[in-house]
Design a protein that fits this description.
Elements: E1 17-18, E2 34-38, E3 45-48, E4 53-56, E5 60-67, E6 70-76, E7 98-104, E8 110-118, E9 130-140, E10 143-151, E11 167-173, E12 181-185, E13 194-197, E14 203-209, E15 211-218, E16 228-237, E17 252-261, E18 264-273, E19 283-291, E20 298-300, E21 309-316, E22 322-328, E23 338-345, E24 351-353, E25 360-364
Parallel strand pairs: 1-25
Antiparallel strand pairs: 2-25, 3-4, 5-6, 6-7, 7-8, 9-10, 10-11, 11-12, 13-14, 14-15, 15-16, 17-18, 18-19, 19-20, 21-22, 22-23, 23-24
């Protein structure tokens, strides 16, 4: 897909955990309306292996969008692999089957809303026929933008560069359930490219290239199949942790997500700390950096590793705050399962969040605060 710059420990708490927020709704008998949840969420989906339907719980790259009183979810579906010669005779040539939309009102009961993009329904020469990694949905006024990573595994000539690779695509729809049209490649947009829409209406591509880079996007000609990158591309977060004096650095950064909260720009990123690091540092972690402009400069969180998890994406939560979805990584018991938690930022742009598994969490229900949503 973060408490006062405290690393998330992910402990299973034995008692009911409580969070408070102002502006509670009332159910009419003096009892505040409340939302309760428990990480990891009880979410599963079906996958057709070629001989039978299988139920999967593990996900990657979850992204949740709130529309009215409903929360919509997209994510990278099983199988998560890239192009592999050993699996080209499998269903969908071994690719993830596409991008499927799910919805919920309480994060307990889920509904399938259908396919936004489906591999088996696309022609063999479609350049975005396979992979379907890291999908996101972003709303701008009455439009919804779907961004994802894809390519074609049938023949390299069907990819726009005429070779194997991973490319970022954007499509647009008039409603969140689609249909998404004018699906167009971002020029030189790498895998896991994220979309950010600022308060002034400017779109940005937030791109992982080992480091995290950013550049303005012009989507005004998307109906014509044209996306333009505007101005300079700028590196805003370095993979190396030399800037914060840490001995350990990740091998690369990926899965970026940008939010504007309390006037600060926050960019989250996923970082893989491999065998070249100390044992306590290894694994898949979320990092963050903050700045006063989308183009930077950004100051990295001095902890480096904010919490043990993966691929953050923000959404408007049930209590008026910004929340985030992510993939659990702390331990094998819950690894790969869908989690959500509230997200807060202090006056210095430092992340405050709780990440727990196994505890029931209760928060009061309130409509999103206008200042929490940059749009």
């Amino acid at each position: 897909m973060l408490k006062a710059w405290l690393a998330c420990l992910g402990l299973c708490l034995p008692a009911l955990a409580m969070r408070t927020a102002g502006g509670e709704a009332d159910r009419g008998e003096g009892v505040p309306a409340a939302f309760t949840y428990r990480n990891p969420l009880d979410f599963s989906y079906s996958y057709f292996s070629g001989s039978a339907e299988e139920t999967k719980k593990e996900i990657r790259d979850p992204c949740i969008v709130r529309e009215g009183d409903t929360y919509y979810l997209v994510f990278t579906m099983w199988p998560f692999r890239g192009r592999d010669e050993k699996h080209l005779n499998d269903v969908d040539m071994g690719s993830s089957p596409g991008i499927r939309l799910f919805s919920t009102k309480d994060f307990k009961t889920w509904k399938t809303e259908g396919w936004l993009v489906k591999s088996s329904e696309l022609p063999n020469d479609c350049p975005y026929k396979h992979r379907f990694w890291a999908p996101e949905i972003h709303k701008d006024g009455g439009k919804f933008y779907l961004i994802f990573t894809a390519d074609n595994w049938v023949d390299p000539k069907y990819n726009q560069d005429g070779r194997w690779g991973m490319y970022a695509y954007i499509g647009v729809a008039g409603k969140i359930t689609g249909p998404y049209e004018h699906i167009t490649r971002i020029p030189s947009g790498p895998c896991d490219t994220s979309l950010f829409h600022d308060t002034d209406g400017t779109f940005y591509a937030v791109m992982p290239k080992g480091d995290i880079c950013i550049q303005k996007l012009d989507l005004s000609e998307l109906p014509k199949g044209v996306i333009k990158r505007v101005g300079e591309e700028r590196r805003i977060v370095s993979c190396s942790n030399n800037d914060i004096g840490m001995k350990s650095s990740p091998e690369y950064l990926e899965g970026p997500w940008m939010e504007k909260l309390n006037g600060k720009y926050i960019v989250f990123f996923a970082a893989l700390y491999g065998r070249n690091n100390l044992p306590e540092d290894r694994g898949y972690w979320v990092g963050a950096a903050s700045g006063d402009s989308a183009m930077g400069p950004f100051k990295k969180d001095p902890r480096g590793k904010v919490f043990h998890g993966g691929h953050v994406a923000g959404f408007d939560g049930p209590d008026g705050r910004k929340w985030f979805s992510y993939r659990w990584e702390k331990d094998a018991k819950f690894r790969g399962l869908l989690c959500i938690d509230p997200l807060d930022v202090d006056k210095d742009g430092r992340i405050q969040a709780d990440c727990t598994a196994g505890a029931e969490i209760r928060v009061p229900v309130r409509q999103p605060a206008g200042g929490n949503d940059p749009r």
